[in-house]
Amino acid sequence: MFLLGHSCWSYLFSKATGRELNVNLPAYLALLSGILPDFDIYFQPYIVHHTYTHSLIVIVPVVIVLTYFFGRLGFAFSIGILSHLLGDFLVGTIPLLYPLFPNSDIGLNLGIPSLADTVLEIGAFTLVLVYAYWNGDYKLIVKPSRESLPLGIPLFALVTLTLLFAGDRSIPLAEFAFSRRALTVITLGHILLSGILAIGVLQGLRWFLGNRRMRQKTRRDTSSVQPRTDQRGYVPP
Ligand SMILES: [Zn+2]
What we know:
By secondary structure, this protein is mostly helical. The chain contains eight helices and two strands; from the N terminus they run H-H-H-E-E-H-H-H-H-H.
């Protein structure tokens, strides 16, 4: 599964889990959790992609640690991480017990790119748009807010991981992205999701600038209404 699907699946699964547990997992974490297992791409060639970070032997202890330290929030985030394994399991295979059993790959292998994969990714993206409207997360991109700023983190990960992955395999990205109909749809999905996140970051920046201006103004106002003192610092009654 591509990053679009992973990000959208984790948003749906981890947000729904958080809702069940009465915690509100921030949107940027919900979108990020599902792409964490592919962070191994940042560490190539030291870690081979799709090995340790896609194995339950590594992921289960991570889930336990996150849940232990961050409670319900950590558990909801972990569900997002686990959704990555499910996504890869459906369209390909995952090395379930790597490195203990290096040949433990299992999966439905529906194919990537394939019609099934495209439906799973674009379907999830559509559901994210509906869910984000329903739970109010859409506000992060329609008005300036502090909470919009961290959307830059999943945006950065989506863009850099795509570039690194393509660079590593010497894939001419622009050519590959539109080479088949299934890929073209997926590519457009990536562009749309990145665009939405970029708008969110801009709203965060608007909040930041507005907030700074406001603070400067209140500082000016308070200094101009300060009581006048004489030379010895005496404040007249
Ligand atoms: Zn993966």
